[in-house]
Amino acid sequence: MALAAVAAFSSAPVAAQGEGERMLIIAHRGASGERPEHTLASYERAIDQGADYVEPDLVATSDGVLVARHENDISDTTDVSTRPEFEDRRRTKEIDGQLVTGWFVEDFTLAELRSLRAKERLPLIRAANARFDGLYQVPTFAEIVALVRAKEAETGRRIGIYPELKHPGFLLQEAGIDTVDLLVLALQEAGYTSASDPIFVQCFEIGPLKRLDRLTDVPLVQLVHFIGGPADEPALTYADMATPTGFAAIADYADAIGIDLRYIMREDGIDGAVIEDAKATGLAVHGWTLRKENVFLPPPFKSGGGEAATGDFEAIWNALAATGMDGVFTDDPRLAAAVQRGSQPAGGN
């Protein structure tokens, strides 16, 4: 499916962009620079600000419902640690080679999870977002799809969705939850079945993407980290994958790469060589993650005012666009849309 799908979705309104066209604005966990991540409020704000796609990370409850959390550990993104009724759910687990202590989605039913409330993950950097702590529930994937469809009806424009399967190998082996099958069923029910539909499905692991390549025609994205390697291929590193040979192998089962911007955002500026290598194999290239705060930016794009201050977002967005990148994951779709329009961004928080 992979290479054929590139041609099929290249003409779709919200699909991969050609050279000289604008980059896709992929709202990373929604408008997570302005609202607690992975909440319906964050996704809706991103859509209202002009995002082409919203990105939910997906894990699953013990009763097999796909929900949006950055990790299956919900210690830092919900109020679970303050809830005495769930104190006995605290566990230590080995997840993809790392010991993690906390509370995990797969140990909660959907009803239990819905009793929790979301909170800001980076309160020291995004203090304004913490004002919204306690207001929002953890959304299901079905609710996110329903929101997207409602906003399409409201705005008359096509809005994409960009789900990521988180730790599918761990959840299958340790909890018996097959998130690949759950996602395929959810996509079919939502009508996402073809290469031209406004959707990308992403994963850091290789096996789940190869399964998806056999089960669906929707575009697939291999995520490539700057360190480590895929949890299901211990002999392979992401650095090996970020080479012409590695990209050629990815093109056999995926349509695009989602590449860590540290391959491109160097201490002294921007280097787009890896993008050229990927595109030479027919892959679209989406970079992650562009955030506005100084702490996340290379020195040439920092401003005064400390780590939480906003750097030169416009300059770095334009520098990335000049590389020929097709899309960028950003916590700040409001700023990205303003750069695309050549206007000043509307008010923030």
Gist of the model:
The chain has 349 residues and is of the alpha/beta class. It contains 12 helices and 15 strands.
Descriptive labels:
three-stranded mixed beta sheet, TIM Barrel, 349 residues, alpha/beta, disordered N terminus, eight-stranded parallel beta sheet, 16% strand
Overall average pLDDT: 93
Terminal residue distance: 42 Å
CATH architecture: Alpha-Beta Barrel
CATH topology, what is it called? TIM Barrel
Strand content: 15-25%
N to C succession of SSEs: HEHEEEEEHHEEHHEHEHHEEEHEHEH
Query: Pairing-aware structural class of the strands and helices?
Result: alpha/beta
Number of domains: 1
* Radius of gyration (Å): 19 Å
Number of strands: 15
EC number: 3.1.4.46
Catalytic activity: a sn-glycero-3-phosphodiester + H2O = an alcohol + sn-glycerol 3-phosphate + H(+)
GO biological process, one term: lipid metabolic process
Domain GP-PDE: 23-340
